Amino acid sequence: MRTDIVHPGADKLKYEIREIVAVAKRVALSGIPIIWENIGDPVAKGETPPTWIKEVIKNTLKEDVTFAYSPTKGLDETRAYIAKERNVEGGIQITPDDILFFNGLGDAISHVYRNLNPHARIIGPDPAYPTHSSAEAAHANKPHITYRLDPENGWKPDLVDMEKKIKANKDITGILIVNPDNPTGFVYPQDTIRTIVALAKKYKLFIISDEIYSNLAFEGSGMRKLASVIGNVPSIAMRGISKEFPWPGARCGWIEFYNRSKDKNFDRYARSIVDSKMLEVCSTTLPQRVLPKVMGDSRYYPYLAGRTRRYEERAGYAHKMLSKIPEIIVHKPRGAFYMTCVFKKGSLKKNQTLPIRGDLKKFIDSCLKNASLDKRFVYYLLASTGICVVPLSSGFNSSLQGFRFLLLEQDMERFKKTINTIGKAISEFVAS
I need a labelling partner for 320 at 20 to 30 A (CA). Which of 35, 114, 273, 296 fits? Predict the structure, then answer.
């Protein structure tokens, strides 16, 4: 091409959660069954959406209006329902005009970052969720800036580290939290959120709170949405139905703007997000029409409570077994359906190995040139056992060495077998 057509931040777009699938498929060709512990899709892992939710969707499809465009911001009645529910929860009060629908939260994340001034940076957690970290890095064409989630302190954010980096990086204009967190399952205590809000107010920043798992927090977790403590700080909260219904294929998410009127620059930024969505006309109508009918049903929240109890049960077993291994740090999650193991410093070394059959070892080694040590473990685990997890360092833009796995396996005996196999592999790997 006579002119370079590639965006300067293109190389920052990485999503190893799915990239590892190609490696796993090659492993499967050698006859090893794959146990998919990489992608957080409840339906793919065997969770069946309740019959009554399917009936709501089927009946909604009978309505001709379901096949029409929706308004750019989203269906009026659906936004009114969400605003009412938010206001009942307490905290900041919003109107339907503060809500904007997207084709999934990934679409929302893309719009939020690409409409930022290229010099404006968002500081996010380490480990980071790659959709956020990649989009933020790509928009700025610079490495994503992170604050530490501390595995030595139950994954609580290091607020001293956060403020130090905010002071040092004058381009930081916003703080991202993911609550409950992916990949750690950490739920931010309300006092911690208040402190982050205070930092944002002190340094004139805005906050992004990704709350896609907020209704999948465990009982007694203390989960509180940002709206409950935000005060007058400009903010964006992110929600969706992919994990809740669960209906990831619906691609239905939304954002809520808080305190647009408190800052003219933030209001203009919010308007630019709305305008960019207008160029796409609207988001998919069907899931928007379904949302109030499902969430407003008396069966909905008891259904979610049953799911989170099962996640918590699996988390308890995984923690019980893996916490016995002296070379790793593992904490019980407080929400969502993920767990993260961190290797203690010095536990991983070059040339550690697991038994791999035949020429598969050559293939795996060819994938690991200049790879991090935790990625080496993950790929050896995959080729040796068929268990496909995601490395922390490359998968979650992290300075830590470890991996994430799921709590979605429906068969408890199969889940226990997977956890036991992971534990055995860790012990063999670090001892090799």
Answer: 35
Judge whether residue 50 has pLDDT over 80.
yes
Q: Is the Cβ–Cβ distance between 380 and 354 less than 8 Å?
A: yes
- Give me the phi and psi of 121, to 5 degrees please: -115, 150
Q: Residue 143: in which H helix or E strand, if any?
A: none
Q: What is the CATH number of the domain that holds 240?
A: 3.40.640.10
DSSP 244: T
Reference 95, options 82, 108, 106, 107; nearest CA is 82
Helices (H), 232-372: 264-278, 285-295, 300-322, 360-366
Question: Which residues are bridge partners to 209 per DSSP?
Answer: 177, 237
- Nearest-5° angle of CA 184, CA 241, CA 23? 55
Please indicate, yes or no, whether residues 206 and 89 belong to a single structural domain of this protein.
yes
Question: What would the mean pLDDT of 13-22 be, rounded to a whole number?
Answer: 70
Nearest to 42 by CA among 284, 164, 212: 212
Task: Dump pLDDT digits (tens) for 261-274.
Answer: 999 999 999 999 99
What torsion do the CA atoms of 361, 367, 369, 370 make, to the nearest 10 degrees?
Answer: -130
> pLDDT (tens digit, 9 = 90+) per residue, 380-411?
999 999 999 999 998 899 999 999 999 999 99
CA distances (Å), origin 408, targets 53, 82, 160, 387, 418: 20, 28, 34, 14, 12
Q: Tell me whether residue 2 is in a domain.
A: no
365-373 contact pairs (CB < 8 A, 24+)? 367/23, 372/401, 373/343, 373/348, 373/349, 373/401
Residue 27: domain span: 10-47+301-431
User: Both 403 and 271 in a single domain?
Assistant: no
β 387-388/35-36 pair status: parallel
Beta strands in 211-267 (DSSP E): 235-240, 253-258
Same domain, yes or no: 333 and 398 = yes
344 and 378, same structural domain?
yes
Number of domains, the chain: 2
- 3-state helix, strand, coil split of the chain in percent (to 5) is 45, 15, 40
At 255, list the tokens.
């954002």
Shared domain for 275 and 332, answered yes or no, is no
Judgement on whether residues 291 and 321 belong to the same structural domain of the protein: no
Burial of 228-251, coded b for 16+ CB within 10 Å and e otherwise, reads ebbeebbbbbbbbbbbbbbbbebb
